[in-house]
Design brief:
This protein has helices at residues 18-30, 32-36, 245-250, and strands spanning 43-44, 68-72, 95-101, 115-119, 126-131, 143-149, 157-162, 179-183, 191-196, 225-231, 236-237, 252-256, 262-265, 269-271, 279-284, 290-295, 300-301, 311-314. The chain is mostly beta strands.
Length: 325
């Protein structure tokens, strides 16, 4: 990898209480040399829209709208104080809100001033900074972590709107004007995005980075199809434990056979792990196209340890073909 991928869990840490919180802080200290050497390129601080463009298109070639998929009030004044070493500066003790877009973004067009957050009482939130890490593997540049003061448990943010020019990665789409209701602080994480991954993004056999965040693991050699699923916030097992084979067995993928019948299968492997982002890769051993993904309630949590509800989503099928390799 040309540089260390600067990342810290999309909403900071897997669990913010007790020994696990201290363990994460200690992990930051143990890896301080690597963190200091990290190339910080995905954090932004501009409070005004600085993207000059004449792009106004909001629908792509396949008819998909440039939309906000989700905004999640993940943490209220609970970002760790050492997070400023790996997140944007001044993030310690702030609120965290991951925002997921329908398409990958051009990072140079994304600024704090492009977002407007409104609370239930009508007060506007303050966005100190943002970062697109850790979700910066190929195909993942669609999650933005906002850091600032967005409200409270008693006066929660309820709406997020794009008020500046944010462009898709290929600069063909503009997200200005898109808006979405904010998921409440006490809600658990849900799957909000799923797509078949293009073979050129597979990175089979990748071992991930040496840090507990950074580049995710790859599917095994011999994989026939990969489905990328995105959650609306950072996810771990209960208590902050890493995702393992138990979680793989809970994912269910519905595929469509050549005779148009549909059957449900389990991924033979789970990848994009140990990198602290909000994505998993479901590794399949069939070329029959995936059409939906589901996951049962009560097994994954956000950084506050709020557990997931039962969640299901259709798979976007325009993004890549399966292979027999």
């Amino acid at each position: 990898m040309a540089r260390f991928k600067r990342s810290f869990l999309i909403v900071a840490v897997p669990a913010l209480g007790g020994a696990l919180y201290l363990a994460m802080q200690n992990a930051v200290i143990r890896n301080l040399v690597w963190i200091i050497g990290y190339d910080r390129v995905l954090d932004r601080y501009e409070q005004i829209d600085k993207t000059n463009t004449d792009v106004s298109e909001t629908t792509d070639y396949y008819g998909r709208k440039a939309t906000l998929v989700s905004a999640f009030f993940g943490l209220d004044n609970e970002l760790p104080y050492l997070s400023g070493l790996v997140l944007c500066k001044g993030s310690g003790g702030k609120d965290g809100m991951p925002v997921v877009f329908s398409h990958e973004l051009n990072p140079g067009s994304v600024e704090p001033g492009d977002f407007r957050i409104t609370t239930s009482s009508g007060v506007l939130g303050t966005i100190t900074c943002l970062t697109m890490a850790p979700a910066d593997d190929p195909g993942e540049l669609r999650t933005v972590l906002l850091v600032g003061e967005f409200g409270s448990g008693q006066n929660q943010p309820v709406n997020l709107e794009i008020v500046g020019n944010i462009l898709s990665n290929d600069e063909s789409l503009n997200f200005k004007g898109a808006e979405v209701a904010v998921t409440a602080l006490e809600d658990g994480p849900s799957i909000v995005f799923a797509e078949r991954v293009r073979p050129e993004e597979w990175n089979l056999g990748a071992s991930g980075t040496r840090l507990p965040w950074g580049g995710g693991t790859g599917c095994p050699i011999g994989t026939s199809q990969i489905v990328r699923v995105g959650w609306n916030g950072g996810i771990t097992k209960r208590g902050g434990a890493h995702v393992n084979d138990e979680i793989r067995e809970l994912y269910k993928v519905k595929i469509e056979r050549h005779d148009l019948t549909k059957v449900q299968i389990t991924p033979f492997s789970l990848a994009d792990l140990s990198d602290g982002d909000n994505f998993h890769s479901l590794c399949l051993d069939t070329i029959n196209p995936a059409v939906s993904v589901s996951f049962p309630a009560g097994h994954l949590t956000d950084p506050r340890d709020d557990v997931n509800p039962a969640t299901k989503i259709a798979v976007h099928r325009k993004t890549g073909k399966a292979t027999t390799q």
